[in-house]
Design goal:
The protein is mainly alpha-helical and about 80 residues long. The chain has one domain. The protein is about 65% helix and about 0% strand. It has helices at about 1-15, 25-30, 40-50, 60-85. The mean pLDDT is about 95.
Length: about 80
């Protein structure tokens, strides 16, 4: 999950685009509503699985849930950013 989006972010920025600039901050402000030291991928896991023990590996069902939440929130972020200009 993260490798693909990190690659997208790098390519977009290299081409002069915004990439994922502001995504983590948007997640924290709009969906987690608390501070976190995690990167955007860790924040997504916190949002998707709020009761999860972070010391355990994800089950296949949890991985699917995280991916669903990731792409839903990413779509919302990009749409909102695009509408703002």
């Amino acid at each position: 999950m993260t490798c693909f989006l990190d690659g997208y972010d790098y390519a977009a920025r290299r081409s002069g685009g915004q990439g994922l600039d502001g995504f983590r901050e948007w997640l924290l402000a709009n969906h987690l509503r608390r501070e976190s030291n995690f990167s955007w991928s860790g924040v997504i896991k916190q949002i998707a699985l709020p009761e999860r023990d972070s010391d355990t590996d994800l089950s296949p069902e949890q991985e699917l849930r995280v991916l669903e939440v990731l792409f839903d929130l990413l779509d919302r972020f990009l749409s909102e950013r695009e509408s703002l200009g």
